């Protein structure tokens, strides 16, 4: 087969969720498949791509704006592959005759207030078009599969759940000097709780800050810091003011985007990783934290219970008291943290990108007929 992949997300230097997924699934397909021919379509020269075998080639077709829906569409008219794989949500307006798209979440349906008006319109229009036109759909969790069926009434046989994996760089770090060097680079002093995601309302950061202020008092842990790592997003400024309003500005650190190479050390150094998000289609950082041996607290909604399993604390993200109780338990109970570390390491070991690539390739073959 000739398999085309929209690699535009993987070409971005500062990768977040969908960009990480695109990069990792391309890398894993390259390690798995030496038989089929792959074309990686990009709108810019990639800052870095994973090591790939000779059956992968780059097709750079520049266009600054509307690249997916104009330039990639023209490429599909000119020389469509046997199957086109789009790892992030939106097929081009003119897709290949046989196409596969990965849908990560339908958060815009549940929390429209967390998006600008333009983002809402775009997601509604192009998600609907993509899921109708795709030959096959990959959902990254059972929660996303259920949402696709609920909102778009898709048949079971059109959707395949393919879970993320965990990169091998996420593991316990035994050398404390390695962790200390990274913490120094970001100006972080232990002990700390770590949150990693784009800073925006859907991530529930405002309630997390409120809960942290309460938990510091309940656990008698005035020295602990909440480290919030991630790009600035929609309505970030209001969230950043929250810590000052609660009188804990000196104990809440916004450190910005964290380089991929630094994240394992930050996770290893944390007392716990916390993600009380209002909605997630998966939650890749949950598995990454567990693979590092870091205790996890997450929401009991959407895909997060599916990913956490029995290896973390689940809280009600809409109740500050529930989040605070979970944080208090983590801060005050070293035995609980040790048990969650043990469970997390065992749980994360079963999630691999190799398995994700095998299942993805099977979907591509099925779509190609």
Q: Considering DSSP H and I runs of 4 or more, what fraction of the residues is helical?
A: 40-55%
Total strands: the figure is 13
Q: How are strands sequenced across the largest beta sheet?
A: 3-2-1-4-5-6-7
* CATH class placement of the largest domain: Alpha Beta
Name of the CATH homologous superfamily of the largest domain = Glycogen Phosphorylase B
| Helix and strand element order | EHEEHEEHHEHEHEHEHEHEHEHEHHH
Number of domains: 2
User: Any idea what the shape is?
Assistant: globular
Report strand %: 15-25%
Q: Taking all residues together, what is the mean pLDDT?
A: 94
**Contiguous helical run count:** 14
- Low-pLDDT regions: none
Which structural class should the secondary elements be placed in? alpha/beta
CATH topology of the largest domain: Rossmann fold
Please give the CATH architecture of the largest domain: 3-Layer(aba) Sandwich
Largest sheet: 7 strands, parallel
Q: State the separation between the terminal residues, measured CA to CA.
A: 10 Å
How big is the Rg?
21 Å
């Amino acid at each position: 087969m000739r398999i085309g992949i929209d690699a535009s997300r993987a070409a971005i230097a500062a990768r977040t969720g969908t960009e990480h997924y695109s990069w990792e699934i391309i890398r894993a397909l390259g390690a798995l498949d030496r038989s089929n021919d792959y074309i990686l379509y990009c709108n810019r020269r990639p800052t870095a791509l994973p090591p790939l075998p000779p059956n992968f080639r780059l097709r750079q077709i520049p266009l600054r704006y509307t690249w997916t829906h104009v330039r990639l569409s023209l490429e599909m008219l000119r020389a469509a592959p046997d199957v086109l794989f789009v790892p992030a949500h939106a097929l081009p307006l003119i897709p290949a005759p046989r196409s596969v798209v990965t849908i990560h979440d339908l958060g815009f349906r549940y929390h429209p207030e967390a998006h600008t008006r333009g983002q809402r319109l775009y997601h509604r229009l192009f998600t609907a078009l993509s899921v109708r036109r795709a030959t096959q759909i990959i959902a990254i969790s059972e929660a996303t599969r259920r949402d696709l069926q609920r909102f778009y009434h898709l048949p079971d046989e059109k959707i395949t759940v393919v879970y993320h994996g965990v990169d091998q760089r996420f593991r316990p770090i035994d050398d404390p000097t390695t962790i200390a060097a990274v913490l120094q680079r970001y100006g972080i002093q232990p002990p700390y709780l770590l949150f990693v995601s784009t800073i925006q309302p859907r991530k529930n950061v405002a309630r997390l800050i409120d809960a942290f202020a309460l938990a510091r008092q309940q656990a008698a842990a005035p020295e602990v810091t909440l480290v919030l790592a991630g790009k600035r997003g929609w309505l970030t400024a209001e969230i950043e003011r929250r810590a000052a309003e609660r009188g804990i500005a000196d104990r809440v650190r916004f450190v910005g985007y964290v380089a991929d190479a630094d994240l394992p050390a930050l996770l290893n150094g944390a007392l716990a990783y916390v993600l009380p998000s209002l909605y997630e289609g998966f939650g890749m950082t949950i598995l990454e934290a567990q693979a590092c041996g870091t205790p996890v607290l997450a929401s009991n909604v959407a895909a997060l219970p599916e990913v956490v399993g029995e290896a973390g604390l689940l809280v009600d993200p809409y109740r500050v008291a529930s989040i605070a109780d979970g944080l208090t338990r983590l801060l005050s109970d070293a035995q609980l943290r040790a048990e969650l570390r043990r469970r997390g390491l065992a749980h994360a070991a079963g999630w691999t990108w190799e398995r994700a690539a095998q299942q993805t390739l099977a979907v591509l073959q099925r779509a190609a007929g």
